[in-house]
Amino acid sequence: MVKICCIGAGYVGGPTMAVIALKCPSNQVIVVDISVPRITAWNSDQLPIYEPGLEDVVKQCRGKNLFFSTDVEQHVAESDIIFVSVNTPTKTRGLGAGKAADLTYWESAARLIADVSKSNKIVVEKSTVPVKTAEAIEKILTHNSKGINFQILSNPEFLAEGTAIQDLLNPDRVLIGGRETPEGQKAIKVLKGVYAQWVPEDRIITTNLWSAELSKLAANAFLAQRISSVNSMSALCEATGADVTQVAHAVGKDTRIGPRFLNASVGFGGSCFQKDILNLVYICECNGLPEVANYWKQVIEVNDYQKNRFVNRVVSSMFNTVSGKKIAILGFAFKKDTGDTRETPAIDVCKGLLGDNAHLSIFDPQVNEDQIQRDISMKKFDWDHPRHLQPSSPTSVKQVSVVWDAYEATKNAHAVCILTEWDEFKKLDYQRIYDNMQKPAFVFDGRNIVDVEKLRKIGFIVYCIGKPLDQWLKDMPAVA
Questions:
Q1: What is the arithmetic mean of pLDDT over 167-179?
Q2: What is the predicted pLDDT for the residue at 473?
Q3: Are residues 251 and 182 in the same domain?
Q4: With 60 as the cut, is the pLDDT of residue 392 above it?
Q5: Residue 315 domain boundaries
Q6: Does the N-terminal or the C-terminal CB of the chain have fewer CB atoms within 10 Å?
Q7: Binding site for NAD(+): which residues?
Q8: Could you give the residue ranges of the DSSP H alpha helices within 344-401?
Q9: In terms of domains, do 178 and 248 share one?
């Protein structure tokens, strides 16, 4: 029996270990975290994260070969393979502030492993880390080894929230990077043996450490780049009368390009895209590659531009002011089928509207009021620190109310902003919503999910990203 321990019970550690436990019933899998509330939630009927299919997997394995514990030292000491899935936030101060990854939590985990280990260990990077992190971790472990052999592997995750369980059960690829030494290759073989219990061998890719670390950053950068590319086209579509959906469909039919990640929207979010690109920018700058750094920086700048452009559309369309007006916000999570709000475009859109003194009524089926208030009042990058190390939540923003359904959010509102593509928002009774709104009634669709013609027949003035503009909007400036 292989004993597997994962340090970190978040969006990556929890689901990954649950699926490993499901598919490797002869292995013991323990997820450890210093957060008592988080571990308590993992051991309860109300899991700390929402992910379709996760609850079923956890309930099948929990108490059999899957365990959640706060006794970090004991389980780390007893394990053969240790996955490290801790936060790697963007630094907010010091060298590389605003771009470089803060490896404080990773270093603490490495020192803990070194302190408590009494037998040889395979230590697996599961967090998104900068290239050459393994080398730093290796140095900490080697200099504190007390004769114990540690092998460092990079095994980046390629999960998409909302489909994480399916991504784990049927991955495109599993990437394992290790040292090109006999010991390193042996460690790779051990970890490969875990995944091979359900993943076809031709999908398990092995590389050197640095290639594995860089591949994760590169994959996220390429995906974000596609979103920024189609979003840049959406602005041009609005200016010329083209339809970005039609353009994206035509472009996506080219087999060299493909259709995925070509949906225009209010912007990308999530825990990885911006953070990883900033990290990539910093690494390029440190390696004397300013042109490469500037290229990737532009992906983020277009994303920020898209969010600002959306806010400007809202304000300029409504007589150049939203002061004192009620704006309904439908959706706060960064994408559907997750409660994750990290770097969600909704934060910047809401802050932009609040800056013009709007009153916001927010509804999201998976995000609670405390999280929304924290996100709107928190400083940039603070979200990525563990909850107990984040600044205490300040007083709730008075101009923000969080409500229990879409109809309450839109009641007496001047406008509706759709910021997450939840399926239920496509099925709403928009006639009912229109009847209960202030007139003229506006819908600003940041995800292109509504039936534009149907809403216009009801009486709405509708704005959709990258679509031919409503006559009303043609008379309004694109920038407030």
A1: 96
A2: 80
A3: no
A4: no
A5: 240-475
A6: N
A7: 8-13, 33, 38, 86-90, 127-128, 161, 272-275, 342
A8: 345-355, 369-377
A9: no
